[in-house]
Amino acid sequence: MKSFSLVSCLSLVLLAGCNSAPPEPEKPKYEFKAAATTQDIMESLIAHMAEDIWNSVRVEIDKDGVHDYQPQNKEEWQEVAYAARGLAEAGTLLMYEGRAEDYGDWAKYVRQMSEMSLEAAKAADDQDPDRLLTAGGNIYEVCTNCHTDYLERVEMKRTGGSAPEAPVTAPPGAEPAKGETK
Ligand code: HEC
Predict the structure, then answer these.
(1) Could you tell me the residue range of the domain that residue 50 belongs to?
(2) If pLDDT is split at 50, 70 and 90, which confidence band does 176 have?
(3) In the chain, how many domains are there?
(4) Which of 28, 30, 50, 89 suits 66 as a labelling partner, its CA being 20 to 30 A distant?
C-alpha cells in the first residue's frame, strides 16, 4: 500500500496546482557590506591574481642564458584567463561602500584595472603571449598609478598614522588596536 499512498499524495499536490506553489523567498534585508580592508583585498586576492598573470609570460635570465616562459597547454592558458577575470571582478570589491575612496579617480583606476584585466583574459583565451604581456604591463601601470595617488593616504587612515601597530585584518572603520603588531 505504500506505493499507492505515495501516488495519491503526488496527485494531491498536482491537483492543488499552481496556486499553492511556495512563494519565492524574499530578497533578504541583510546588507552586503565590506568585511575586509582594502589592504586585505590587495594582499589576499588582487596581488595573487596579478602575479599569476605576470608570471605566465616572462623572460628569465640566468647563468645558462635567456629563458622564455609561457603557458604550455590549454589548462595553463585557462588558469591565466581565470586569474585575469578574477582580477577584473575584484574591481567590484574595491567599489563597495567602506572601500571606495571616491567616485572620481579611485573609480577611474578601478575601471581601468578591470578593463586591462579583461584584455589579459581575452589574450589568454586566444593563447596570445604578446598581447598578454602588453595587457600585463598595462595592469602594472594602473596598480602603480593608484598606489601613487592613494596608498599612503589609505594606509594612514587604516593605521591611524602608526603602521607597525595596526592590525592588518581589522574591518574598515575599526579603531586600530593598540600594541597589536603585523
Ligand atoms: C583603486 C586603487 C588601487 C588599485 C587599482 C590597486 N591598488 Fe593596491 N593598494 C591600494 C591602496 C589604497 C593600498 C593601501 C591599503 C592600506 O594600506 O590600507 C594598496 C595596497 C596594496 C598592497 C599592499 C602594499 C603594502 O605595502 O602593504 C599590495 C601588495 C597591492 N596593493 C597590490 C596591488 C596590485 C598588484 C594591483 C594591480 C593589479 C593593485 N594593488 C591595484 C589601492 C589600489
Answers:
(1) 32-159
(2) very low
(3) 1
(4) 50
Evaluate whether residue 135 is within a structural domain. Answer: yes
Specify the CATH number for the domain of residue 61.
Answer: 1.20.120
Instruction: Note whether residue 151 is domain-resident.
Output: yes
Average pLDDT, the chain: 84
Residue 4 lies in a domain: no
Quick check: CB of 147 below 6 Å from ligand 1?
yes
Beta bridge partners of 62: 65
pLDDT value at residue 97: 86
Ligand 1 centroid distance, CA of 90 (Å)? 12
Residue whose CA lies nearest to ligand 1 atom number 18 = 155
pLDDT classification of 169: cutoffs 50, 70, 90: very low
Strand 65-69, strand 58-62: pairing = antiparallel
| φ and ψ at residue 148, rounded to 5 degrees | -60, -45
Convert the pLDDT of each residue in 35-55 to its tens digit: 899 999 999 999 999 999 999
Does residue 58 sit in helix, strand or coil?
strand
The single residue listed with the C-alpha cell 640566468 is 62
In a domain, 181, yes or no: no
Local structure of 62: helix, strand or coil: strand
